Amino acid sequence: MKELIKISEFQRRRWGENGTPMCPQAIRMQLRNGQLPGEQIGKLWYVDWTAFSKSGSNDLVAMVLKGAA
């Protein structure tokens, strides 16, 4: 089951209220390149929070699981 969330919500959940998130453009590029799980619906991009959470929210773990490292 997917939980698609907007990029702004992803920034809030991933980096918190006081964190320094990546800019929306960088997140969209990662979505396009398949580095982040998600999809485009119409003109808007959404992050699949369920898939991202299963990766442990750790960029290194996600790269290793994907086979990129």
UniProtKB/TrEMBL annotation:
Annotated source species: Stutzerimonas nitrititolerans
Top-rank taxon, per record: Bacteria
Name of protein: Transposase
